[in-house]
Write a structure and sequence with these properties.
With 95 residues, the chain is mainly alpha-helical. The chain has five helices and no strands. The protein has a domain of 64 residues: 434 Repressor (Amino-terminal Domain) (Orthogonal Bundle), CATH 1.10.260.40. The longest helix has 18 residues.
């Protein structure tokens, strides 16, 4: 899974923190945060809550950005996704 979050260098320049310091602040391993920042993992619900608790936006925003990024990535591959449309009966919907 990829991520919509930035790159490692963005943490040190934007927040004045090293990746190690930011990981300690969030209560996660440096490897975990590094994988997120280097697009090897996406923002999980738990990480979104950690980011929110640190005062860096809110969990819903983090998850929304990640979902939008995931959808964008999937749409780039949409041509290779082959699914037949499911037939629906021509029955009027009762009012």
């Amino acid at each position: 899974m990829q991520t919509a979050v930035g790159h490692e260098s963005g943490v040190s320049t934007s927040l004045g923190l090293t990746v190690t310091a930011a990981a300690d602040w969030l209560g996660v391993s440096r490897q975990s945060l590094s994988e997120l920042l280097n697009s090897r993992n996406g923002v999980s619900a738990e990480m979104a809550i950690r980011l929110e608790k640190a005062g860096w936006s809110n969990a819903e925003t983090w998850l929304s950005v990640q979902a939008a990024y995931d959808l964008w990535q999937a749409r780039q591959r949409a041509g290779s996704i082959h699914v037949k449309r499911y037939p629906t009966p021509d029955v009027p919907i009762p009012v």
